[in-house]
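Homework help thread (please don't just give me the answer)

Our assignment gives two proteins as sequence + structure token strings and asks us to describe the second one. The first is just a warm-up. Here they are:
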Amino acid sequence: MILEKFRYINISKFRRCLYIDLNKYLVYEKRSIAFALFTIGIAINFFASIHVMYFWTIESYCPLITMPLFIFAILLSKSTRTQIFSRTDFLLPTIFSLLMQYYQSFVNAQNFVPYIISTSSLCLFYCMFRIDKKLAEKALKKICVFFAVFLTISLLFFFLRFIGFDLPNNSIERGNYSYTNYFFFLLDDRELWNILIPRFHSVFLEPGHMGTTIILLLATQIGKWKRWYNIVLFVALLLSFSLAAYCLGVILLFLRLWILRRKIFLKIIVLLSSLAIVVGFSFVYNDGDNMLNNLIVMRLEVSDTGDDFKGNNRVSKDFEREFESFLNSSDVMFGREMDYEGWGNSGYRVYIYDYGMVGFILFLIFYFLAFRTGRDKRAIITAFVLSLTNFWIRGYPMLFAFVYPYFIISQLDNVKPVKKSKE
């Protein structure tokens, strides 16, 4: 009886399996693996360059360590019909990235190791500038999602510690910094506990590092800010209480309206009014003794001399005097050897002091070559505004955690007006 039923099986269905083109599935897998290797390599260099705790021991060597990932990704891509590294406008920015690395190595190098690291970074920048634009954006989105997942865990442990849970910890140091390490977040030992809560900076060196990184990631996600992972980034940003990040954030709010071609006049009035209300509330709440007023608003007051504001303290008084003498010397062209013993100096003056006007001009050319390949002029201008503002504040124009988001921002061409209520 059972054998009788087999007589009516339609074996043509099984024959079709003989004609399945397995090649296309192999090609798809190769593309997926190549993209995954690219994303992992980018993520490692991204977080290591901004001094995330887990990468402290290898951060200087990350371009060399991740070079095999990029080489393997290139080889896999070349073996597919549709390569992921398909852009043709990559040559000039890639060559200039190597020139910048060599120049910085020449200024500061004491041996050949920096040159080896600089040469290995060529694979990193080649892949960054040559990968398909949509895939470059997709890779950064994955980084945003991964970062948001980690920040969710980090924030959970941070609040558990705040409400009194005794979490396992140890003491660690980095340069002049010392921390209590709770493994998913750090507490700076200099943190004052007489404020409402300590400033949150997850596993970054300081709140400004994390806040600035978040702002640049959010800039690449314009039009998508209501998505859950971007909301997590916003929460972490607010809890950083970083003046530099807040200032960049206000600039980004205006740039967002402009880049999306929104009718911005009324929105600017609403935005400015909201900021005024928040600032006013910080003055009156608890008689001004609150984190927002102490850490942000009060630092925006004009200094006693009337020519600066109190929060613009990126360098020490000793360095200011040294910088003035530097500008009047022959070292101004190629820079002067930087003494990093006295930590705390940052901003555009530190970079110019270290690399001179030649270094300043070179990185401007590099930015121009990298950003010019974008199609949307507003996106390109937005990338320049954010990069130069951040350079003025922090002074690290070649930090990969900054360069990659700048490049993605300049390449955005899908930031057309979105449907109402999208964001």
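The one we have to describe:
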Amino acid sequence: MKMMKETPIKKEIVDKLIAQLGIQDFSKATIREVKQVAAMAEKESGVEFIKMEMGIPGLPAAQVGVDAQVKALQSGIAHSYPDIQGYPELKKQASRFVKAFINVDIAPEACVPVSGSMQGTFASFLTCSQADKQKDTVLFIDPGFPVQKMQLQVQGVKYETFDVYDFRGDKLRPKLESYLSKGNICTIVYSNPNNPAWICMTEEELKTIGELATQYDVIIMEDLAYFAMDFRQDLSKPFEAPYQPSVAHYTDNYILLISGSKAFSYAGERIGVTCISDKLFHRHYADLSARYEGLPFGLVFSTRMLYALSSGTSHSAQYALAAMLKAASDGEYNFRNEVKVYGERAHKLKEIFQRHGFHIVYDRDLDKPIADGFYFTIGYKQMTSGELAKELMYYGVSAICLITTGSHQEGLRVCTSFIEDHQYQQLDERMSIFEKNN
């Protein structure tokens, strides 16, 4: 009699709220819907939820950025439009940051500020999908960030996707070629480290992706939202190896999306920078030239796409990001030290879940255990994603299903950003009850 089990939150409360919101299949519930059910159940039951569904920074914004932005505002910068190409000092510091932490040379002109990487991907999708009429489809190496597929839905652009779970290492090349050989792929998208699985592409895998990008003439969109957050190695020393791994070492066909949101906890100001390889920035595509008065790829991106979207990026936030990137490159601000708490939280949370019978779904990077970081993935015995997500709600734990990220595995994405110290004991106690009941 499953419904007779005692749970920290009455099942009737959760089931009623899910029904009220019209969620028919909980495995496909969005992040916002899961968050809403959790908030309402917490209020109605009086039981504190352990919230693991939202990927929002749980740390204070970098002070060096706040100080620079306040100073810029006080100087009167808010009255003037920013240059569509971006604040020159930010472009300079972005170029320097890429050299310091990736060991790649990109000219300042090809580093373009955007209103967060979300806008960077939107404008990149527009530009890439219009560059060659024969190449009208985006390929996702999943699992990934669900909103990027929504962006393509909004644009009316086609996409293909595969779950990389069974295609790591030597299996990656033939899998990618099975798509690229059709000749319709304009760009390949992935995040590194990965949201939600926290897998990190190896140098050999990045080399494979880069070589195929050159061979098939496709553009790689490398989402570096969790920059240098593979905490298995220290990637925080400017101009010193080891560097943040990147496809930029293996092809000229790339766009790097660098966000201020996670590494600098600057999510609220919507600031990032899109760094386009020098060769791609100046490249002329016949279809882009015909549509946009002969402009090269990089200027279509900035003076057409970004200009049409928002006429530039928050002026004062550009001063903030410039200051943060400069301080990091100067070795005065170690952003990795600020955010490594996410890895420490993941380590503790994994131990609790695994002790109570859960398993890590994406558990390895080939021969290495996966890093502890902002996200990780859990499964439980033979439960489906939807069953597990709904069941955990009865225990005051909220997380999203992997199916919503393009994964074909059964399990959930857990985010570490909002975990507070007192909640480890809460989770341990609740998962003990969960284990007895299941």
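TA reply:
I won't write it for you, but here's a hint about the kind of observation we're looking for: The chain has 16 helices and 15 strands.
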